[in-house]
Amino acid sequence: KELFTLLDRLEEQSRRPDDIFLVNTEQTYFEQLIAGTDFWHRYKNVSVKHISRCEFDHGGTRRWAVSRTQNDIFLMMTDDAIPADSHLIERLAAPIEEGRAQMSYARQLIRKDGGVIEAFTRQFNYPDRSELKTAADLKTRGIKAFFASDVCAAYSREWYERLGGFEKHTIFNEDMIFAGGLIQKGYGVAYAAEAKVVHSHNHSAIQQFHRNFDLAVSQADHPEVFDGIRSEGEGIRLVKKTAGWLCRQGKPWLVIQLVWQSGWKYLGYLLGKKYRKLPRWVIDRCTMNPKYWE
Predict the structure, then answer these.
(1) What is the DSSP string of 57-78?
(2) Which of 106, 118, 177, 225 is within CB 3.0–4.6 Å of 195 for a Cys-Cys bond?
(3) Over the stretch 238-268, which tens digit does the pLDDT of each residue have?
(4) Contact, 152 vs 88, CB < 8 A?
(5) What DSSP letter does each residue of 7-29 carry, written as one string?
(6) How far are the Cα atoms of 121, 123, 221 from residue 255, in angstroms, in the given order?
């Protein structure tokens, strides 16, 4: 249902996409999804490529998809990111077309069913003010300078090609790896707050653990990007600010839930950074992408 809503919203954009290339994991599920619908008649500019779960790779799959297109600017989106209005594409592309950045990413708004803690986290990571991040921000912002999200992001093809594109094989974090490379080479990444999508998750503490494990693995695998960049401090700052906000909202009991979730996130991160020292059976229980390790 969300996929149809996403495609409809893209068709309603003030600047419509020339083509939509959908990479689908497991053909059986897709055929079940569109059974009894007029999908192919309704979405004539959509092409679909089916892959298996074992073929999917966060970097390699996107890299292959980009190679199938020719546009000067391309967008990456996940199927559960819904444009909040009809101006998403034009506002996301603007920093690139104006020459201010080589990559831009959208603001993510919380869903109606989002939790209280998640609501503050979204506002923390995706504030209502746009910004341009460059190498000058590394000293003051640490890893936050590299923060970007392929949930909804636009890229300059020229600079994408110059930097070699997405990593061919990565467990996670292909967007931040690319953004980090851009910034370290003296270029800019724009956060376009006026370009908005509705996207959030109500992850459990264990799901957060798995996610942060893979996040840390990606950082450990790319020391050329992440070595020497402050990371843990940003997480601590988020916890402190969230706790203060919960108390001001008159919901101090949720601080217990916050601490519980944050503890699991931090444990996942610590184990992920040290994954090379872990036996394979431990890794299999920590990761959210077991196919990656096969």
Answers:
(1) -TTHHHHHHHHT---SEEEEE-
(2) 106
(3) 899 999 999 998 999 999 999 999 999 999 9
(4) yes
(5) HHHHHT-SS--S-EEEEEE-HHH
(6) 13, 17, 33
Any residues with CB less than 8 A from the CB of 187 and at least 6 apart, and which?
101, 102, 134, 159
What's residue 126's pLDDT? 95
Pair of tokens at residue 253: 């009991």
Q: Which parts of the chain have pLDDT scores under 70?
A: none
| pLDDT for the residue 256 | 94
pLDDT at 287: 96
DSSP 176-192: HHHHHHHHHTT--EEEE
**pTM (2 decimals)?**
0.93
Taking CA atoms, 260 is separated from 29, 125, 186, in Å, by: 35, 20, 39
Query: CB-hemisphere CA count at 13 Å for 261?
Result: 21
* Token pair recorded at residue 179: 């953004």
Q: Which residues of 24-48 are buried (b: 16+ CB within 10 A; e: fewer)?
A: eeeeeebeeeeeeeebeeebeebee
73 and 1 Cβ atoms separated by less than 8 Å: no
Residue type present at position 212: N
pLDDT at position 143 is 87
**Would you put residue 36 in left (φ > 0), alpha (ψ -120 to 50) or beta?**
left
Cα angle vertex 17, ends 9, 98, to 5°? Answer: 110
Q: Are 88 and 197 in contact (CB under 8 A)?
A: yes
Residue 49, beta-bridge partner list:
23
Of 234, 207, 125, 219, nearest to 172 (Cα)? Answer: 219
Query: Max CA-CA distance within the chain?
Result: 55
